């Protein structure tokens, strides 16, 4: 699978963004997908997961109520709507195939990520 993330930007606290992850590959429609992020100087943090049907969705406590994950199988794309952004949300955001609340073991085909910067 090849993944291309986009939609990141510089935004003020309280602002909103919509991130996209365009996927190619025959297994996308059957893959649960996850968003993770990496803040400067920190490790990967799990953000959200959506199953193949789009009905099972989970969020990290740090983003619950502010972020919304969705997927469009016709476009082979998953989205992450970011609302009420906080400086702590500043990170590079990546999507990846999921195994529960984690990136699938052995996954190595990372996209370039998309930078979200929240600052006044």
Describe this structure in words.
This protein is mostly beta strands. The chain is 0% helix and 46% strand. It contains no helices and ten strands. It has strands at 2-6, 10-11, 17-24, 33-38, 44-50, 57-59, 67-72, 77-82, 91-97, 114-118. The strands form two sheets. The chain has a six-stranded mixed sheet with strand order 2-10-9-4-5-6, with no helix packed on it. It has a four-stranded antiparallel sheet with strand order 1-3-8-7, with no helix packed on it. Strand 4 (33-38) and strand 5 (44-50) form a beta hairpin. The termini are far apart. The mean pLDDT is 94.
Element string (H = helix, E = strand): EEEEEEEEEE
Mean pLDDT: 94
Number of helices: 0
Calculate Rg over CA atoms.
13 Å
Which descriptor suits the 3D outline? Answer: globular
- CA-to-CA gap between the ends? 37 Å
Strands in their spatial order, largest beta sheet: 2-10-9-4-5-6
Strand content bin: over 45%
Find the structural class using helix and strand composition: mainly beta
User: What proportion of the residues is helical, as a percent range?
Assistant: under 10%
Largest sheet data = 6 strands, mixed
TL;DR?
Helices cover 0% and strands 46% of the residues.
Topology:
Elements: E1 2-6, E2 10-11, E3 17-24, E4 33-38, E5 44-50, E6 57-59, E7 67-72, E8 77-82, E9 91-97, E10 114-118
Parallel strand pairs: 2-10
Antiparallel strand pairs: 1-3, 3-8, 4-5, 4-9, 5-6, 7-8, 9-10
Keywords:
120 residues, mainly beta, 6-stranded mixed sheet, 46% strand, 4-stranded antiparallel sheet, 10 strands
């Amino acid at each position: 699978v090849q993944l291309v993330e986009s939609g990141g930007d510089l935004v003020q606290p309280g602002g909103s963004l919509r991130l996209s992850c365009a996927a190619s590959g025959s297994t996308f429609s059957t893959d649960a997908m996850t968003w993770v992020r990496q803040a400067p100087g920190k490790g990967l943090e799990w953000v959200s997961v959506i199953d193949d049907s789009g009905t099972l969705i989970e969020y990290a406590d740090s983003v619950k109520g502010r972020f919304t994950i969705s997927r469009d199988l016709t476009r082979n794309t998953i989205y992450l709507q970011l609302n009420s952004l906080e400086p702590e949300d500043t990170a590079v955001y990546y999507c990846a195939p999921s195994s529960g609340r984690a990136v699938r073991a052995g996954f190595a085909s990372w996209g370039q990520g998309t930078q979200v910067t929240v600052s006044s």
